[in-house]
Write a structure and sequence with these properties.
This protein has 276 residues and is of the alpha+beta class. 20% of the residues lie in helices and 41% in strands. It contains five helices and 18 strands. It has an 18-stranded mixed β-sheet that branches. Strand 1 and strand 2 form a beta hairpin. Helix 2 crosses helix 5 (217-229). The longest helix has 13 residues, at 76-88. It is globular and about 55 Å long.
Length: 276
Amino acid sequence: MITRRFFQVDVFADQALAGNPLAVVVDADGLSDDQMAAFARWTNLSETTFLLPPTAAGADYRVRIFTPGGELPFAGHPTLGSCHVWLANGGRPANEMLVQQCAVGTVRIRRSGSRLAFEAPPLLRTGPLAPELLTRIAGGLGLKSDAIRASQWVDNGPGWVAVMIDDREQLLTIRPDHAALAGLKLGVVAPWPGGLAQFEVRAFVCAPPGYEDPVTGSLNASLAQWMMSAGLAPSRYVASQGTAMGRGGRVHVERDGDSIWVGGDVTPMIEGVVRL
C-alpha cells in the first residue's frame, strides 16, 4: 500500500455543507481500475476522482471520475472540485486557461477570483422526447402531463434528459417514483421569479435504488445549452440546487460568444492521506 494525498471538498458552495461533496485522490499514478472503483464504492459519495499526469497534448492534468457504480466520462462538480484540489496542491497551468483531460476529451476551465468555471462540453444527444417517454416522466414525477412546459434530451455524457415546469414550489415537493423512472437520469427545472436565483434545479438518478444529486454541474451545463438556445433562459443566470435536500448550492452560468461557462465556489472540508 502507498500513502497518497486525499481531500474532500464541497462544490458549488461558498460555505461548508451547502453543496455537493467530492473525494479527490491526488497521487493516483499506479492505481488500477479495480482499486479506483473499489475506493469510490467505499467513499459512497456520488463521485470520487483520481488525479493523474496528462497524456493529451495541451492538458495540464488528467482526472478519472468514478461513482460507486462505475466510471463516468465527464461530470461537472468533479471537474471543478478536482481542479481546485490540483491547484491547491501546487498545480501550475501552462496558460491562464486551465485544460483538464478526462474520458470525454479535454475541458477548458477558467478562474475568476476564487471561483472556477468549466466550458460546457458539446451535447452528445439532443432533440425532443418521444410522447410515451414524456408520459412516463410525468407519471413518475407525480405530475399531470400539461404541467411540463418544455422537455429535451440534454445528454453531455451522463445521459441526462430534462423537463421544465412553471411552479418552483411544486418542483420542491416532487417525490419521484424511481421504479417508474428506472434507467433515466432526469433533470427538472423551474423558474424562480424574484428569488435568490433565477432557476431551481433538481436531479434524479433513477438507477436502483435511485437517489437525488445535491448539485450537478453536468446537468446545469446541458440545461443551459438547451434553455438558452430555446429562449427559455437569459445569457447569464444563477441556478439554485439542493434546496429540497437542505443544501444551498449555487451554479453560475454565462454565455460568452459560442461558449457556455458553468461555475461555482469550492469549499475545502477534509485533507489527509489515504493508504491504497
